[in-house]
Amino acid sequence: MCLCLGLPLSSLCIVPCNTMFGSLHQMDVALLDKLIRDDRESGKLPLLLIANAGTPGAGHTDKLSRLKELCVQYNMWLHVEGVNLATLVLGQVSSTVTAATKCDSITLTPGPWLGLPAVPAVTLYRHEDPALSLAAGLTSSQPVEKLRALPLWLSLQYLGHDGILQRIKHASQLTPSPPSVARKFPFLGCMCLGEQLAQQVPLSGVDVVELEDEGTCVRFSPLMTAAALGTQENDVAALVEKLGEMIPVLSCTLRFRQDFKDEVLQQASLSYIEDQSWPGLGGVRYEARTTDLDEDKRQYRVERINSDLLKKLMELDTDLYFSDGPEFCEEKNCIFIGMATEDLDVAELVETIVSIGRDIEESGKLFENMTEVVRRGIQEAEQQLQKANEEKLMEEGVLRQIPLVGSVLNWFSPVQASVKGRTFNLAEGCLDSTEPVYSVKAQMIKEASLDSPKSVTKRFPGQKLFRRHGAGSDSVSDTSSVSQLEESFRETAHVQAIDAEEAEVPQEHHVHIVAEMALSDQRVPEGQETESVDTLR
């Protein structure tokens, strides 16, 4: 405005809001009176006062009647703007907004009120002499300037008086007497709440705004969005229902964040990841305990362990949500845990993460060494088989190696094959003969059992992981809220199947590699075969 009038920015003065008495979002009338008197005493001439009838952020209205009295007293122009001016077309209007009709000028934005995005804003002003308006440049005789009002005129003609009244009345009735509720959450809590409400109830038109004093807030302004989105009363009811479900979950999550951080910091193998953009409990990273690797190999191992750990956690029968983090998260190779309910057992959650990560790390070390162990085992088996072939050649003699003579001798006097394969047991790290395999026609593997950490926490039927039994009657509704935010409940029969599997002896860690080779050029009569086997089991 100063640029349009050719005035310096020093001619603009911002009046603070109330700090001690009255609303904290209304202009301080007493301070305004003092500022006007100070300007007049210093030789300045106050000309214009701009007040709000519904601030852009939260819809607060100044004391327009008191401000009008000051403007009349000091001969100033009072201009009013705001979303609440739309209610002037209704039969019942609050006294604070009615005072706007006594102002010198008002700015209306009928586009959002009527759901017409291409309609320009309109400024209405009082004038006693039309010549003064023309001299001030408020009116124009240019046809192009007059055409700017054509979309508004056509829209008003199409809607008519009843249509305009109906749209504004409908938006006002969606919140006839909105309650004043103040509940403060951190920045990420309000951001998450607003985003979830906008996704689950899109026709409500809620959005997230940043206010100077309160910070980040969730705003519901039907006068600005109802006409364009077609918001109905059932949408408002759905919005209220979602608020009732999400606020307890959000409160529990914010309360458990510090407990989760403390539990993670107590584990030497876990690192806590702080990310303000994540609305859940937080993030963790499982750190490899190996120190004899270079940085590249260590980073690769950490990436692989955390990737497998995330997959294992997502397969668990729980209502918690596990993710690799926000899209633009700076931390890599992390696992982020979503929102929580009142009955969450934070200690059990952290212990499970550590236990699964330890299993993945130990199995990873085993498979990393498997290639070298198998290679050495095969080389040793080849040496033993080559030595056995040489001994067999010495026992049978040279005549049996001649093609024709050997066939005749083998026909009249067959020789029992003596070269046997070799079995390499990776779990025991030793070579054995395969003779027992062919003598009984079945493989006989020595039993070996490795301890596998299992969760022994006793659970009741239908109780999911990381839940405390009997935490309270509200836990049922809280769990339902988390399910709608993250994933639905699964059948409780799956929990019973897992309990049944825990009673069996774990066999997944029994790794046996069998390398059987027979190196022999001995020719045997038709119907007999040389035992030469090379298998990997």
Automatic annotation (TrEMBL):
One of its GO terms (molecular function) is pyridoxal phosphate binding. SUPFAM superfamilies: PLP-dependent transferases. Residues 1-19 form the signal peptide. The keyword Lyase applies. InterPro entries: GrpII_AminoAcid_Decarb (IPR050477), PDXDC1-like_2nd (IPR055103), PDXDC1-like_3rd (IPR055102), PyrdxlP-dep_de-COase (IPR002129), PyrdxlP-dep_Trfase (IPR015424), PyrdxlP-dep_Trfase_major (IPR015421). Its cofactor is pyridoxal 5'-phosphate. Residues 371-398 form a coiled coil. Pfam families: PDXDC1-like_cen, PDXDC1-like_cen2, Pyridoxal_deC. Belongs to the group II decarboxylase family. This is Pyridoxal-dependent decarboxylase domain-containing protein 1.
